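User: tokens in, sequence out, please.
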């Protein structure tokens, strides 16, 4: 009769050894995360100062990103791709204006053409502050010309819009062409420079976060140099020794990122009142936005990664010195 088989002996020894190592590795990770968090709580003042520095540093790129996003939204609301106003000569009648409007609608670089009569122009002028009295002082003769509002096709670059403007100016019946493409190009250039500034600033502040976390972890390792030396003499690996400090860097970065997101939300709330006033001043045309939710959640995660990198670099360097 065969003896019963022990389930543990049925598993190959190598697999049992790997399972034990993985269990020990997982258990030490849990202990390191909890121990590093308790260690941070044991010195609240130093922890709060480090987290505050990280939060303030990481909140600056978020604030600049919010500013640029709203400036871009304002540019779009106020006419990121505005129409071109074509003023006809005073001797041009409505028939010539309609004929030119039909020719322009056939162009491939034109999306739409709106025809404004002299009376419509006079009515719009009367609604402007300071012009109503001057309009009423005019006699029955209307001095305003016919106006064509030409909307360029979406997606045209600056060169194509400029070519359209030059073609409009070359028309014999056209007296004046007003194009705001120059301010549009300046706004795009300013936004491009602003985005580059935000990227550079974010990089510099990320480096500052690395240095802050690294210096804090370096101080912590230096204060426990004797304990680390004993662990290394007992055969502990460097990965085993530095694991609690890596988790400390993660906690520093995570808490600093959470504080940065909260500061960004506070900035939004502080600007909500003036933004609403600005929106009302423009008749509801300006809809200023807030930071996207994914960015507010990504900031603490990115800061935790930065904290881990800073702790990893410093702890590896310190342990090589202690070895």
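Assistant: Sequence out:
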């Amino acid at each position: 009769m065969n003896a019963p088989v022990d389930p543990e002996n049925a598993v190959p020894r190598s697999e049992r050894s790997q399972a034990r190592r993985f269990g020990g590795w997982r258990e030490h990770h849990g202990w390191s995360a909890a121990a590093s968090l308790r260690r941070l709580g044991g010195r609240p003042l130093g922890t709060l100062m480090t987290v505050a520095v990280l939060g303030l540093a990481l909140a600056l790129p978020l604030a600049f990103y919010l500013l640029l996003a709203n400036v871009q939204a304002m540019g779009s609301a106020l006419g990121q791709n505005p129409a071109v106003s074509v003023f006809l000569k005073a001797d041009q009648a409505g028939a010539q204006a309609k004929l030119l409007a039909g020719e322009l609608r056939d162009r491939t670089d034109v999306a739409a053409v709106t025809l404004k009569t002299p009376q419509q122009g006079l009515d719009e002028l009367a609604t402007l502050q300071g012009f109503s009295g001057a309009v009423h002082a005019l006699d029955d003769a209307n001095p305003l010309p016919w106006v064509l509002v030409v909307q360029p096709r979406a997606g045209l670059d600056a060169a194509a819009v400029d070519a359209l403007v030059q073609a409009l100016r070359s028309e014999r019946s056209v007296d004046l062409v007003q194009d705001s493409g120059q301010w549009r190009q300046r706004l795009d250039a300013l936004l491009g420079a602003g985005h580059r500034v935000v990227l550079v600033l974010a990089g510099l502040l990320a480096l500052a976060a690395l240095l802050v976390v690294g210096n804090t972890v370096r101080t912590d390792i230096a204060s426990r140099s004797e304990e680390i030396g004993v662990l290394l003499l007992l055969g502990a690996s460097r990965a085993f020794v530095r694991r609690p400090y890596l988790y400390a860097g993660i906690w520093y970065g995570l808490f600093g990122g959470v504080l940065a997101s909260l500061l960004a939300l506070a900035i939004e709330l502080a600007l909500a009142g003036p933004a609403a006033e600005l929106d009302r001043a423009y008749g509801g045309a300006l809809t200023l936005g807030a930071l996207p939710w994914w960015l507010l959640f990504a900031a603490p995660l990115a800061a935790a990664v930065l904290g881990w990198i800073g702790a990893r670099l410093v702890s590896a360097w310190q342990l090589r010195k202690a070895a």
